Amino acid sequence: xxxxxxxxxxxxxxxxxxxxxxxxxxxxxxxxxxxxxxxxxxxxxxxxxxxxxxxxxxxxxxxxxxxxxxxxxxxxxxxxxxxxxxxxxxxxxxxxxxxxxxxxxxxxxxxxxxxxxxxxxxxxxxxxxxxxxxxxxxxxxxxxxxxxxxxxxxxxxxxxxxxxxxxxxxxxxxxxxxxxxxxxxxxxxxxxxxxxxxxxxxxxxxxxxxxxxxxxxxxxxxxxxxxxxxxxx
Length: 233
Ligand SMILES: Nc1ncnc2c1ncn2[C@@H]1O[C@H](COP(=O)(O)OP(=O)(O)OP(=O)(O)O)[C@@H](O)[C@H]1O
Ligand SMILES: [Mg+2]
Hints:
By secondary structure, the protein is of the alpha/beta class.
């Protein structure tokens, strides 16, 4: 184990049982390290298992076999019960989901504040940070709109603010620019660039042009993960 990695995977396998069919193996013996304070990009064809891998790293699902460690600690130990797991995820990991997963009946300000409340952050400070984050993402005049009253790109940016409210050490982003125009996407990438100095980012994208921003690029194909030098792309 090396201290330079925030996340380490060793021989991780994951598959799904399909009714009446053979088991679908998605990840085969994936071993990889994700360095601290680095911006990692994860590329791979649709259906190759990128979201599955991110869900494992985010401790939303458990691997069938193999180990995943966060700062040298095995998830099996960190996630010993459901409430410890929820608390760990809420404080340490900011997850920007491919389908946003905002709660539609709450305003976006409320959505962003939920993880802060769960973490016991003082409300006033949390509200200031939420407004700052939403403002920096161009949503200052949408604070009181419900999730269902926002465009796809606005929901995506609100999901970014929610992921960042507790200033997590690890940011997992599943195609966070997928619904943004180039100018808004560029602003978000600038924000990630600033965060990458003292956060670990693992970002899925289909846009190979974004690899120029990253410190490391990982390719997922045939259930295996390979690191590529930027110059090899
Ligand atoms: N709960 C599940 N049960 C059965 N199969 C699943 C389940 N979740 C994912 N899969 C299958 O696993 C494969 C990998 O899915 P995953 O969502 O990880 O792909 P992805 O690389 O994120 O694709 P995309 O780029 O389209 O988002 C897909 O073929 C999918 O159908
Ligand atoms: Mg996906």
